[in-house]
Amino acid sequence: MNDKNFETFLKNNTKAPAPPHDEWSRILAKIEEKKGLKSTFKNFKAKQLMLGFTGLAICIVVGLNTMTPGYILNNKNANLKEIDNFLIADSYFNETDTQYSWIEDF
Amino acid sequence: MLKVKKILFSSMEVNQEDLLPLFKEQYIKERNFVRSSIYWMVNSNDIDDLVQETFLKAWKSFDKFEEKSSFRTWIYRIAMNVSYDYLKKNKEEIYQVSDDLEDFKEANLEMTDLISKGLMTLSLEQREAFTLHYQIGLTYLEAGELLDVPEGTVKSRANSAKKVFISFLKENGINYE
Fold it and tell me: Distance between CA A71 and CA A62 in Å, rounded?
């Protein structure tokens, strides 16, 4: 069978189903739907980004304040002062009285 | 007509929505071609969804379409990707269709069904060439441009497909000559 006859045979016996009459409207609706989702996502994304940046900024400020040498020095001095106070306090001597009472024997 | 798109884009900032009338124009021009191409590849009742998916994908990147090829070539590639994905996902169902062929005579199926089933016995490459040339009526050269292969390759694929297809029809008792 030559090509022409073969094509005619196929044409006479085959046909793709007709498109729905509202095909374009459906496509358009999907486009609109996706556009809506996209803009919602964009807004959501912008809000999330803003929150993220604010959180990050807070973390950085707090982090810098606690990690600076000044803060560490102040903290160290405060600890030393606490030890001083403890050693000077009466309770230290009182509490050790019984423990070291043998000293008086000398 | 798509040159208008170039002008629109080169002039100033343009929303993709501004391209919608141009896209619709291309849709009207190519919808039947796209529908037939997909239908003869997948032979499925999901054709409406697949056509829709093809045009939605095309729209998504329509602003990036650079006219290096024609709109038809471009959308054909998208349509075939959609079809291939569909065939992968529905592999079992498609094989089942081929298995049903044994019952062809008993079921007294129409010639259209037999032809559809015959197409499914061809390899994807053969089916593409066969459909474009024999069913849609493109020349080997035109089909070659769409498939991005030389004219001779399309001719060879289409001819081998024709042989397989004819022997399939004969096996099922159809002598159309």
Answer: 11
CB pairs under 8 A between A and B: 59
Longest dimension (CA), chain A: 132
CA-based nearest distance A60→chain B, Å: 38
The 10s digit of each residue's pLDDT in B77-115 is 999 999 999 999 987 565 555 555 555 444 446 788 888
**Interface contact A1-B177, CB threshold 8 A:** yes
Q: For A26-55, how does the pLDDT look when each residue is reduced to its tens digit (9 = 90+)?
A: 999 998 887 776 666 566 666 777 888 888
Contacts of A14 in chain B (CB under 8 A): 40, 112, 115-116, 135
Tell whether A34 lies on the interface with B, counting CB pairs under 8 A. yes
SS3 sequence, chain A? CCHHHHHHHHHHHCCCCCCCCCHHHHHHHHHHHHHHHHHHHHHHHHHHHHHHHHHHHHHHHHHHHHHCHHHHHHHHHHHHHHHHHHHHCHHHHHHHHCCCHHHHHC
